[in-house]
């Protein structure tokens, strides 16, 4: 019965993923512009160094190989972040904090439920994935992955490149970056992530006069603007001949981004 519900939800996924809008949670808007605190993301970096596999057009994660001690270190990293107050950080440190936390929580969810063929298999019986599940408590407030992406990152920073750096553990998703985000490297990684995704077939695939785009550009179309604005955005990062968005379709691969 559960598999039947999962199949129904999978068929309805485009409608589900069109729903989340940028809706600011005001409690997380404050920041301390004068703060010089640097958050330690070294545990997350060590996990990426050990288990992330970078291929020409895809990064994959060795979920099966993660040791018990490294699972513990990941949990410790997440706990350490949960025990700090991101509102006391400056904006650049905040951005790195939230992006790394989102990605670390996603990897932890897969590891906690492994083996699993897709992140969409997680969550409650009538859920398409775990994005509305409360996964962490910070400053006494329970947060979901959707809270982090759609109520903190998107409304505060208002940068469409955010969609290229929060990873949903799926083959269709923009790559999990091999570097942990920091205040110093965030802009470079945003640019690198956008370029890599837009020049991959999972981001933009051109076949003659037809263009197949990632469903991200459909689900979050408001972040990229009109079709003309989206076209300019894509061509800013594309190598070779500019793309023309006359005949467009959308696709997304929810299979787990696992290295075999």
What would you note in describing this structure?
- The protein has 260 residues and is an alpha+beta fold.
- It has one domain (2-192).
- It has 10 helices and 7 strands.
- The protein has helices at residues 2-11, 13-18, 42-51, 68-82, 91-113, 145-157, 186-198, 216-219, 221-224, 227-237, and strands at 52-54, 59-61, 134-138, 141-144, 204-207, 210-214, 247-251.
- Strands 5-6-7 form a 3-stranded mixed β-sheet. It has a two-stranded antiparallel sheet with strand order 1-2. Strands 3-4 form a two-stranded antiparallel ribbon.
- The longest helix is centred in the middle third of the chain and has 23 residues, at 91-113.
- The chain is globular, with a radius of gyration of 18 Å.
- The model is unreliable at 1-18 (pLDDT under 50).
General form: globular
List low-confidence stretches: 1-18
**Main β-sheet description:** 3 strands, mixed
The computed structural class is alpha+beta
N-to-C span: 29 Å
Proportion of strand residues:
5-15%
Strand order of the largest sheet: 5-6-7
Tally of individual domains = 1
Overall average residue pLDDT: 93
List the total number of helices: 10
Question: In angstroms, what is the radius of gyration?
Answer: 18 Å
- The helix/strand series, from N terminus to C terminus, equals HHHEEHHEEHHEEHHHE
- Share of helix, binned: 40-55%
Secondary structure tally: strands: 7
Pfam families: DUF547 (PF04784)
InterPro entries: DUF547 (IPR006869)
Protein name: DUF547 domain-containing protein
Domain DUF547: 87-198
């Amino acid at each position: 019965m559960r598999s039947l519900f999962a199949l129904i939800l999978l068929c309805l996924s485009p409608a589900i993923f069109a729903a989340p809008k940028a809706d600011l949670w005001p409690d997380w808007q404050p920041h301390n512009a004068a703060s010089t605190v640097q958050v330690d993301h070294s545990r997350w970096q060590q996990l990426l160094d050990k288990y992330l596999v970078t291929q020409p057009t895809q990064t994959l994660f060795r979920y099966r190989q993660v040791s018990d001690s490294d699972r513990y270190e990941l949990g410790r990293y997440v706990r350490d972040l949960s025990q700090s107050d991101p509102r006391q950080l400056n904006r650049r440190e905040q951005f790195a904090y939230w992006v790394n936390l989102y990605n670390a929580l996603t990897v932890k969810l897969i590891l906690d439920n492994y083996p699993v063929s897709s992140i969409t298999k997680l969550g409650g019986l009538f859920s398409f994935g775990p994005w509305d599940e409360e996964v962490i408590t910070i400053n006494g407030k329970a947060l979901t992955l959707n809270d982090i992406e759609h109520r903190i990152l998107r409304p505060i920073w208002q940068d469409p490149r955010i969609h290229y750096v929060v990873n949903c553990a799926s083959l269709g998703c923009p790559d999990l970056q091999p570097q942990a985000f920091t205040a110093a490297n965030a802009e470079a990684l945003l640019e690198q992530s956008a370029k890599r995704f837009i020049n991959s077939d999972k981001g933009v695939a051109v076949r003659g006069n037809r263009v197949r785009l990632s469903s991200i550009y459909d689900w979050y179309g408001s972040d990229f603007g009109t079709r003309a604005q989206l076209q300019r955005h894509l061509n800013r990062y594309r190598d070779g001949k500019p793309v023309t968005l006359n005949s467009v379709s959308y696709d997304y691969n929810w299979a787990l981004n696992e290295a075999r």
